[in-house]
């Protein structure tokens, strides 16, 4: 099995008028993934800010958009078999 790493965008924009993943709770996603034992890294902006919070899986490169705490367990499980 290939080691999987979850990259979680933690970019925060100063203006509340501009979307950012940190403003949508992405830092909590990192904590949840770590609780599950995942390899996880905070990431800079992926350029998909309007669809945040954004998680990218390496090595597949797959993106997940609009991720919330409720999605984390399923995303983790989906990517364990790669
Ligand atoms: S702020 Fe997360 S993708 Fe841009």
Report what the structure shows.
- The relative contact order is 0.28.
- It contains 2 helices and 4 strands.
- The longest helix is centred in the middle third of the chain and has 10 residues, at 26-35.
- The protein has a domain at 20-54 and 62-82.
- With 82 residues, the protein is α+β, with helices and mostly antiparallel strands.
- It has helices at 26-35, 72-78; strands spanning 5-9, 39-43, 55-58, 63-64.
- The mean pLDDT is 93.
- It has a 4-stranded mixed beta sheet, covered by helices on one side.
- The N and C termini lie close together (6 Å).
- Helices cover 21% and strands 20% of the residues.
- Bound molecules: FE2/S2 (inorganic) cluster.
Jot down its keywords.
globular, single chain, 4 strands, 82 residues, alpha+beta
Q: Spell out the helices and strands N to C.
A: EHEEEH
Distance between the termini: 6 Å
> Low-confidence parts lasting 5 or more residues at pLDDT below 50?
none
Strand content: 15-25%
What would a concise description of this structure say?
The protein is 21% helix and 20% strand. It is α+β, with helices and mostly antiparallel strands.
Describe the SSE topology.
Blueprint: E1 5-9, H1 26-35, E2 39-43, E3 55-58, E4 63-64, H2 72-78
Parallel strand pairs: 1-2
Antiparallel strand pairs: 1-3, 3-4
Bound molecules: FE2/S2 (inorganic) cluster.
């Amino acid at each position: 099995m290939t080691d999987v790493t979850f990259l979680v965008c933690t970019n925060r924009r100063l203006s509340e008028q501009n979307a950012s993943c940190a403003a949508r709770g992405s830092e909590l996603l990192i904590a949840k993934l770590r609780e599950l034992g995942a390899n996880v890294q905070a990431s800079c902006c992926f350029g998909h800010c309007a669809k945040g919070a954004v998680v990218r899986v390496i090595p597949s490169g797959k993106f997940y958009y609009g991720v919330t705490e409720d999605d984390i367990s399923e995303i983790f499980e989906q990517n364990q078999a790669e």
